[in-house]
Amino acid sequence: MKNENKLGKTEAWVVLDAKPDARLVYGIKDGVDSAALSEAAEKGRALEDLLRYVDVKKGDVLHIPAGTVHAIGEGIVLYEIQQSSDVTYRFYDWERRDEHGNKRTLHTKQALDVTKLGPPPEKAVSSTLPLEGTGRLEQLLSTPYFTILRYTNCENALLSADRRRFGMLTALSPARLYYTDRSLQLAAGQTVLLPANGEDLRLWGDEFLFSCPTVK
């Protein structure tokens, strides 16, 4: 993004829960060009007709490359991981206002400059990886910027330390971590930061998500 002297913000969503018929905005409809998108953005609500809506359910994983239009719909709880960046461009805000009646700032021109047209990637398909201990380990997604793993039904499952990168482990149900002669209890939703070159962990719990930078 030359306006900010940055390279964009690739993200990923793992759907943790979703009500029936829940939908996300995930890209722009096929056949929409930049001129049509620009005209609709100037009109506000007209933009909604050009957005691509996808049905989602618990367990879905969506890869959101930088420049992909995206928005969370009603009744969805998700886990988000993203490339390190503090820039978000917004060209529509669903007519929302703050407690003072003011609309949030829009960045229409900048957003249109970087928006990717055409369909986004298909929902990610997981692959099973070997795991020491009882449980299951899946790679949900790997991008040039980050990797997301899921551990399920763990009893003494090994999460090996990695000297090359840090990681973040989130418990999606009550869990316990064991390392050397100590242990740590986690409530559902709690996250721990695992430093590079730290200690091996043994996981006990129903479900964890682990994310880390992708080693190149």
From TrEMBL:
This is Mannose-6-phosphate isomerase ManA. The gene is manA_18. It is an enzyme of class 5 (isomerase). One of its GO terms (molecular function) is metal ion binding. The keyword Isomerase applies. Its EC number is 5.3.1.8. Gene3D superfamilies: Jelly Rolls. Keywords: Isomerase, Metal-binding, Zinc.
